[in-house]
Amino acid sequence: xxxxxxxxxxxxxxxxxxxxxxxxxxxxxxxxxxxxxxxxxxxxxxxxxxxxxxxxxxxxxxxxxxxxxxxxxxxxxxxxxxxxxxxxxxxxxxxxxxxxxxxxxxxx
Length: 108
Description:
Layout (H helix, E strand, L loop, with lengths): L2 H31 L3 H45 L1 H25 L1
Helix pairs in contact: 1-2
């Protein structure tokens, strides 16, 4: 799943969530005023939209988990294929962070 398709899913999910919230407000107002058949029809529509939003949320969660797993596997493969380069990068970053902390502490 690409970044753009994830964005599309997020936008759809947000739109569905907003629709559910709007319909829930309408349902509460209608029940407060009337009740009956109109409230039942609106309730069914709200439940349908809520289920759709839940399904899209699950799809988005699955996509994020899949991307995370792919990133973890790629990182793991890189580290196993290039252990010395990985250690050099880690040592360089550690030295840079240590130097920055040392400079900050000396300023005080």
